[in-house]
Amino acid sequence: MADSSFDIVSKIDRQEADNALNQARKEVEQRYDFKGTDASIDWSGESILIKANSEERAKAVLDVFQTKLIKRGISLKSLDSGEPTASGREYRIVSTLKEGISSEDAKKISKMIRDEGPKSIKSQIQGDELRVQSKSRDDLQEVQRMLKAADLDVDLQFVNYR
After folding, report:
1. How much is the pTM?
2. Contact 17, 66 (CB under 8 A)
3. What is the CA radius of gyration of the chain?
4. For 81-96, what is each residue's pLDDT tens digit?
5. What are the backbone dihedrals phi and psi of residue 53, each rounded to the nearest 5 degrees, phi first?
6. Which stretch of DSSP H or E encloses residue 141?
């Protein structure tokens, strides 16, 4: 019998992220507490640029955006936000959406699978994803449960389960 396998990836649905950003922009434009604060949120290349005339307003816009991401099913682990920085008369927050598993995170996950997972499991790093193989599908499901329960700073999805 052939080995069963699945891939561990960290991906974001770009359309859902764009929808969340557009919803946040509309809410910022319409909310009374943002009137006159020059608050805005927009794409700036691959990153997200939040602007406001005070540090608190910039953080409030970020909070609105985070709420919209959660409602759209995107984990906040995939959002990497900086601190508000003063730029002239406005404050800016630059945020990026992280995709792919970095090599050190992949090594950490692979080590966790080797140390805590069932012994029949084999894992290998393939670029920015991880392939996990075993003869037993129950062992693969056990690894998935273990990784979901682990407190990792990466949003993981399990795909290509065969």
Report:
1. 0.85
2. no
3. 20
4. 999 999 888 999 999 9
5. -85, -5
6. helix 137-149
Q: Residue 57 corresponds to which amino acid?
A: R
* Angle, vertex CA 89, rays to CA 87 and CA 95, nearest 5: 40
- What single-letter DSSP state applies at residue 92? E
**pLDDT of 97-155, one tens digit each?**
998 898 899 999 999 999 988 888 999 999 888 999 999 889 999 999 999 998 888 88
Which contacts qualify for 41-46: CB closer than 8 Å, 24 or more apart? 41/65, 43/18, 44/94, 46/96, 46/97
Query: In which residue are the tokens 């003869």 written?
Result: 135
For the chain, the first-to-last Cα distance in angstroms comes to 12
Q: 156: number of CA atoms within 13 Å, CB side?
A: 23
Indicate the helix (H) or strand (E) that contains 43. strand 40-44
Interior/surface letters 24-41, b for 16+ CB within 10 angstroms, e for the rest: bbebbeeeeebeebebbb
Contact 101, 8 (CB under 8 A): yes
